[in-house]
Backbone:
């Protein structure tokens, strides 16, 4: 059983929680790609998470969580957000929500067990959300790999017109290798 009063306080504080989360995601060095997502799109997540959280936790419906977070994972892949940053963002969301419950919600002594149950339920919810978001991300990646590619036009220049070509052209990305074969050692 969870505390419906605590869930209501989360709903009532959804704007503040959302603004704090967006500020964190757009300034944290661990998720620079989130700076590319328009603030309005991140604000829309408020309704999705904070308004539906109580329903998702109470019903323990994996279908709704799966549907939403697989979709989120696909969206983040298509936006070019690295998977590590998506997982970090979900982790930060969970941490900020748990901190809000622990520190900002005046708990009644008789609700301590309910608060504990809510924090455990939130942890379980986010564990599933991370899994389903990663699943959606991987689905989008595989779909892109399997998408038919357009035939690329290749222009072949006869060798007589090209002139002599070097056997190897060093790229800046090449790793320097020493005579002993140690990567990163370019000397001697």
Residues:
């Amino acid at each position: 059983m969870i505390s419906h009063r605590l869930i209501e306080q989360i709903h009532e504080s959804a704007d503040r929680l959302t603004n704090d989360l967006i500020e964190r995601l757009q300034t944290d060095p661990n998720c620079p790609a989130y700076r590319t997502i328009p603030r309005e799109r991140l604000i829309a997540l408020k309704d999705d998470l904070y308004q539906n959280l109580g329903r998702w936790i109470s019903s323990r419906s994996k279908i709704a969580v799966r549907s939403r977070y697989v979709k989120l994972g696909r969206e983040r892949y298509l936006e070019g957000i690295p998977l590590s940053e998506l997982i970090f963002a979900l982790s930060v969301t969970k941490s900020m929500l748990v901190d809000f419950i622990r520190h900002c919600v005046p708990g009644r002594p008789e609700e301590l067990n309910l608060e504990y149950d809510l924090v455990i339920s939130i942890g379980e919810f986010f564990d599933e959300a991370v899994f389903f978001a990663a699943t959606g991300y991987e689905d989008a990646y595989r779909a892109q790999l399997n998408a038919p590619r357009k035939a690329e036009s290749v222009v072949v220049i006869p060798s007589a017109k090209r002139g002599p070509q070097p056997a190897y052209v060093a790229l800046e990305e090449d790793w320097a290798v020493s005579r002993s074969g140690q990567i990163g050692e370019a000397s001697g």
